[in-house]
Amino acid sequence: MTQQPVETVHALAYGAYPARCLQVVCEIGVADRIDDEPVPVGKLAAACGADPGTLTRILRLLASYDVFEERDGGYAHTVASRLLRDDHPMSARPLIRLTGLPMHLDSLSLLQHTVLTGEPAIETLQPGGIWPYLTERPDQAEIFNRAMTSKAAADVPAVVDAYDFTPFGVIADIGGGRGHLLRAVLDAVPDAEGVLFDQPSVIEALSFPDHPRLALRAGDFFDTVPAADAYILMHVLHNWGDEQVARILATVRESAAPGATLLVIENVLPDAHPTPAALTMDVIMLALTPGRERTESELSALFDGAGFRFTGMTETAGTMRIAEAKAV
Predict the structure, then answer these.
(1) What values do phi and psi take at 264, rounded to 5?
(2) How far apart are CA 33 and CA 296, in angstroms?
(3) What's the CA gap between 42 and 26, in Å, rounded?
(4) What is the pLDDT of residues 1-49, one digit of tens each?
(5) How far is CA 1 from CA 4, 7, 31, in A?
């Protein structure tokens, strides 16, 4: 049955409520208290420190979205609700907890400020934006880091399966964080060497290299980056405005020989008909960063300005797309 326009508007208007219910059940760990059989709400509430009547109403709403199932006097898992367990190999719990942090909720409440001024909402909460905000709030930073690790666990296999890294002798992961992607690439390409490049504070916090072909380099990608045959920028450019992105790309081009490959891996929007999920992520970036999710054409123009030529887009089995460019 086709949804009526008024139903569409109402669903959007009240959409924050089911989202918040999902965040709350992840925060208190409901999914981890359910295994293969239904569990009575009273038992779930006792295990999670919740009020039984209130938890019933929350779970009833989520079950209407096929997240949990009301059955045999209790609540059981669905395929979707199993993703909320900590021990699921593709666990979504860290990311959902991230969306329930004050960082997200307070920025969302200030989105009108962003619309009127063009400034990221989070800058009204913390001068300097998201990174100083997290530095001053280590409890939220810990959840943020867990969420990024969880996201990498889903994105990395899809990227490695989709793209052929075998032509490259030296692969540099610029702003590569803890090195999840680069280590997976090196495992898949036995003849390649890797350079993990990030800020000194990130590199100093690592307890490896634990890979025989992985080197660590600290620095600032606005200043200089190591030379390589291929450069990976995963979840980097979308954090920055066009002026900063142009500088990052120019820095990479200064180190890249003609013909070197640049791989930008993020939620690159198609020029026509991007999905609502992709556009939602773009608005999240609007609230939290000076960056944005860019279209293929927008990235291509930035490549051209920095001395790269866009050569193609590779789809992955996940949400990430791989934009490839060559140094000219």
Answers:
(1) -100, 115
(2) 43
(3) 18
(4) 688 999 999 999 999 999 999 999 999 999 999 999 999 999 999 999 9
(5) 9, 12, 32
Instruction: Answer for the pair 302, 278: CB distance below 8 angstroms, yes or no.
Output: no
Q: Which tens digits make up the pLDDT trace of 222-237?
A: 999 999 999 999 999 9
- Which percentage of the chain shows pLDDT scores above 90? 91
> Cβ atoms within 10 A of the Cβ of 313, count?
15
Alpha carbon 123 to chain centroid distance? Answer: 20
Beta-sheet strands, E only, within 177-320: 193-198, 214-218, 230-234, 261-266, 308-315
In the three-class reduction of DSSP (H, G, I as helix; E, B as strand; rest coil), residue 112 is classed as: helix
Residue pointed to by tokens 């990311």: 95
Residue 170 DSSP SS3: strand
pLDDT at 209: 67
* pTM, entire model: 0.90
Per the DSSP assignment, residues forming a β-bridge with 75 are 39, 70
Calpha distance 77→322 (Å, rounded)? 34
Q: Which of 22, 117, 130 shows the shortest CA–CA distance to 67?
A: 22
Contact 95, 88 (CB under 8 A): no
* 3-state SS track over 25-82: HHHHCCHHHCCCCCECHHHHHHHHCCCHHHHHHHHHHHHHCCCCEEECCEEECCHHHH
Residues 158, 150: Cα–Cα separation, whole Å: 14
pLDDT attached to residue 151: 87
CA 328 to CA 194: how far, in whole Å?
A: 23
d(CA 227, CA 248): 14
CB-based contact 231:262 (threshold 8 Å) = yes
Measure the CA–CA gap between 147 and 20, rounded to whole angstroms: 17
What is residue 2's predicted lDDT score, i.e. its pLDDT? 80
Separation of alpha carbons 61 and 80, rounded Å: 14
Q: What's the token pair of residue 167?
A: 């032509």
Query: For residue 215, how many other CB atoms are within 10 A of its CB?
Result: 14
Active site residues: 238
